[in-house]
Amino acid sequence: MMNEKEPQHDKAQGRKPFLLGALLGVAVGAVLCAAVILGAMPKMMIATQESRLGFDETVDALERAIPAHGWVISSVLDMNQSMAKHNVQFGPRVKLVKLCNPEHAKSVLTTDRYVSTLMPCTMAVWEGDDGKVYLSRMNMPLMAKLFGGNIARVMGGDVARDEHAILSGIVRD
């Protein structure tokens, strides 16, 4: 009888290191996955493209293209001037073009008012340290997937298509 129990005891002892190793592997994998996601997420949330145009020409092109595609410019904020009013000097130029499509805004605000913190949409035109001009904006298709529902339909569909049309001819692919 004793001989029959000993092999079962040995099997149980053999499973413990395997289970511990498996649990440790899953835990390490989860931590590494989380670190990669957290590291990549900020770069994924903002879409940045080089402009084909100079700084002022990029802003002017946006100011023409936005209304041409059914959007409204609510403001253009010169960040350098804004900071200078508070005695802060900053060399590279940065302008924020704030835009809204009232119908899209109404659709989202009807179902998800908390998203109003992301409104109006903003496109940033800025000079890089390399002397090139860039345009940055939120990555609408990714944002849409994160929120789901009506936000996904509007931001991932209509807004993303409109942004693409607005930016065609302004930014490099």
Overview features:
single chain, 173 residues, alpha+beta, five-stranded antiparallel β-sheet, 6 helices, 5 strands, elongated
Structure write-up:
- The termini are far apart.
- Strand 4 and strand 5 (133-138) form a beta hairpin.
- A five-stranded antiparallel β-sheet has the order 1-5-4-3-2.
- The chain has six helices and five strands.
- It is elongated.
- The chain is 58% helix and 18% strand.
- By secondary structure, it is an alpha+beta fold.
- The model has no long low-confidence stretch (mean pLDDT 87).
Beta-strand percentage? 15-25%
In whole angstroms, how far apart are the ends?
Answer: 76 Å
Provide the succession of SSEs: HEHEHEHEEHH
Helix content: 55-70%
Structural class: alpha+beta
Q: Measured on Cα atoms, how large is the radius of gyration? A: 26 Å
- Based on Cα principal axes, name the global outline: elongated
The whole-number mean of residue pLDDT values reads: 87
Oligomerization state? single chain
Biggest sheet features: 5 strands, antiparallel
Number of strands: 5
Please give the order of strands in the largest beta sheet: 1-5-4-3-2
Note poorly predicted spans.
none
Count the DSSP helices.
6
Topology:
Layout: H1 2-45, E1 46-50, H2 55-68, E2 72-78, H3 79-84, E3 94-100, H4 102-111, E4 121-127, E5 133-138, H5 140-147, H6 149-167
Helix pairs in contact: 4-6, 5-6
